[in-house]
Amino acid sequence: MLTKKNNPEGRMRFLEHLGELRTRIIRTLIAIAFAGVAGWILYPLILDFILQPYCDTLDRDCTLRVDEPLEGLNTRFMVAAYSGIILAFPVILWQFWKFVSPGLHRNEKRHGIIMVGFGASLFAFGCYLAFATLPRALSFLVTIGGTDLVTEFRAKAYITFIIKMMLAFGIGFQLPVVLITLQRLSLLQYETLRRQWRYAVVIIVIVVAVITPSGDPISLLALAIPMYALYEFSILYGWLRKRKLIKAKSYA
C-alpha cells in the first residue's frame, strides 16, 4: 500500500494536477463571465437572431409571451449566460487542451492551436447546422399536435429550446476532438474504434436522442449522421497517424 512516506512524489504530482485543474476551471469561468457580459449587451440582437426560426415557421407575428413580472429579466440573464458559454467556447477548448497537454509528447504539444481551431470550427458549424434545421423541426413540432392548437410560445421556454439545440449540436460535433485527444494520449487506438463501429452507431443515436431537446426525427438525423461521419474521420486520423509513426521509426 502506498503511503505519504514512501510515495511522496506520486502524491505531489496528484496535488499538482488538482491545482492545475482548479486554475483551468477558474480561467474558464472568467472567460464565460466576460463573454456573458457581451451577451447581456448584445441581447436585443441575439433575441432577434433567435426569433428568426420561429418567424419562418409561423410566417406571421412571432412575438413571445411573458407571463410573470420577472420573466423578462430572467430571460435576459439566461440569454447572457448561454451566450457566454457559446462565445467563450474557444477559450474552454484551450483550457482543456492545456490541462491534457502535459500527457502528450513534446512534438504533439505544438498542435494545440490547430486542435483548438479545429474544435471551435466544429462547434460553430454544429451551432449553424442546428439553427438551419430549426425551422423544419419547429414546423414538425407545431403541426404534429393538430390544427386545433394555437401556437404561442413562452419566451423562456422557446429561448431555452433554441439555445439548448445549438449547444447540443455544437457539443456533439466535439466527438472527433475527444477521440483524437484520447489517441494522442495513447488511451485509445483507432483499431478499437474501427472494430466497435456498430456499437458506436447505437450509442450515437441514443446520445443524440437524449441531448436534443426537440426529440423530432429531423434534428436526430441532422446530428446523428454528421457525428458518425466525424467518428469515421477519427478512425482515418488514427490510421494516418500510425502510418506516420511507423514511417518515422523506419527512417530513424
Description:
This protein has 252 residues and is mainly alpha-helical. It has helices at residues 8-41, 43-58, 71-87, 89-100, 106-109, 112-143, 155-172, 175-184, 190-195, 197-211, 217-251. The protein has one domain (12-251). It is built from 11 helices and no strands. α1 packs antiparallel against α4 and α10 crosses α11 (217-251). It is globular.
What's this, in brief?
The chain has 252 residues and is an all-alpha fold. It is built from 11 helices and no strands. The two termini are 41 Å apart.
Which structural class fits the helix and strand makeup?
Answer: mainly alpha
Order of helices and strands: HHHHHHHHHHH
Round the mean pLDDT to the nearest integer and report it.
Answer: 84
Work out the strand percent. under 5%
Q: Nearest-angstrom radius of gyration?
A: 22 Å
**Total domain units:** 1
* Unreliable residue runs: 1-5, 7-12
Number of strands: 0
Report, as a whole number of angstroms, the end-to-end distance.
Answer: 41 Å
Number of helices: 11
* Global morphology: globular
The helix content, as a percent range, equals over 70%
Major beta-sheet overview = none
